[in-house]
Amino acid sequence: MSSVDKLIEIFRNFPGIGPRQAKRFVYYLLTRNAGTLEELSRLILELKKEIKICGSCYRFFSKDASKSSLCEICRDEHRDKTFLMIVSKDVDLETIEKSHSYSGLYFVIGGSIPILEKEPDKQIRGKELLLAIEKKVAGGLKEIILALNLNPEGENTSDYLEKLLSPIAVKNNIKISTLGRGLSTGTELEYSDADTIKNAFRNRE
User: Fold this and answer.
1) Distance (Å, rounded) from C-alpha 126 to C-alpha 176?
2) 74 and 36 within one domain
3) Which domain covers residue 132, as residue numbers?
4) Are 174 and 142 in contact (CB under 8 A)?
């Protein structure tokens, strides 16, 4: 397999990228000069060195001078610790933050559960989520918000999480809610605008 074919295969594994787009990426790179490609290679290699995963919410964040294991959101003393919003991926968290409609904490489960998946616990950070909730109960956690995509996989994941979290929620009198009207069926959270996010949060059920 040539370098072109290998790169096409790599790009095809990117979210939302099909064979034609993957080919366009590769042929675009072929038109760039050596300096551009070297810079791209350097930045990709440095990703793992400069970025780490938050020890509390599991989002990616840039390493800073504080050497903290927590991201800036989890370190922020002004965040409302009575709310925990569960999202599938980092880009969903960023979309909600840009809407300025939510001031609580987050947890990134790292994906979604396909319908008919036989091992759902391997698709998301379920065990880590339970441990995080147990820690946050002492901090006054009152509500868990499931902010997942309104598509079949998102709804399947939401159903799974409700069953997973119900025992600890009932035991500690924690409400489990989902984003309400404002998000259309089939919607992916990362493509929703600020007003839509605000309405969905305001009308959560």
Assistant:
1) 15
2) no
3) 60-202
4) yes
